[in-house]
Amino acid sequence: MKIICIGRNYSEHIRELNNETPEEPVIFIKPDTALLRNNNPFYIPDFSKDVHHEVEIVVKINKPGRAIPVPFAKDYYTHISLGIDFTARDLQSQLKAKGLPWEKAKGFDHSAAIGEFFPITDFSSTLHQLPFSLHKNNVLVQSGNTHQMIHSVDEIIAYVSNFFSLRIGDYIFTGTPAGVGPVNHGDILQGNIEDKEILNFRILG
Ligand code: ZN
């Protein structure tokens, strides 16, 4: 199992970090040791003073494939969830400034929190117009809608599968909307797709 993540897929988030808008999807991978499931608490690692939450729609791959054409991408998933792409922003900024890979800042242990998966048909909106949100300590910090994505889920699957063969059980984080920010000891993160609660867990450290 691998965790494939898409960066810079929502314009307002690109602006808040002063990044350039990429023409092609920005891809990175987290190892399986990054998984955090079952609303277990997230422990802030010692090597960062500025770990950020990035709430994202997560798609689970249910059929193996490579070089998948966009019109067929929808045959490769049925279930989605919500995840947090935890990012050590201070470390990432240092690595980016040196032109080095982000892995340490993005792929560390438990940096990929993922909630329970639900069939897309459980939601009243389609995957192309799906609202989702993140509350921190009962305050709304991120809200997005998949229609704001620069690259759609199907375009992402097609693109990614040109480089990495997809296997059953792989996860794809599809990018975060604006409003990323730090987490601190004692915070509660609560994430929704539409009005369904998908994530609810504590930050410790
Ligand atoms: Zn992200």
Distance between the termini: 28 Å
Number of strands: 16
Main pleated sheet: 8 strands, mixed
What do we call the CATH homologous superfamily? Fumarylacetoacetase-like, C-terminal domain
Please describe what this structure looks like.
With 205 residues, the chain is mostly beta strands. It has one domain: Fumarylacetoacetase-like, C-terminal domain (Fumarylacetoacetate hydrolase, domain 2), CATH 3.90.850. It is 13% helix and 36% strand. It has helices spanning 11-16, 89-97, 103-106, 153-160; strands spanning 3-7, 26-30, 35-36, 42-43, 51-53, 55-61, 77-85, 87-88, 112-114, 118-119, 131-136, 139-145, 171-173, 181-182, 188-193, 196-204. Strands 1, 2, 3, 6, 7, 9, 10 and 13 form an eight-stranded mixed β-sheet that branches. The longest helix has 9 residues, at 89-97. It is globular, with a radius of gyration of 16 Å. The chain starts with a strand and ends with a strand. The mean pLDDT is 96. The chain binds zinc ion. Zinc ion is lined by residues 5, 7, 54, 56, 85, 173, 175-176. Zinc ion binds at residues 5, 7, 54, 56, 85, 173, 175-176.
Question: What characteristics describe this protein?
Answer:
205 residues; Fumarylacetoacetate hydrolase, domain 2; five-stranded mixed sheet; 4 helices; binds zinc ion
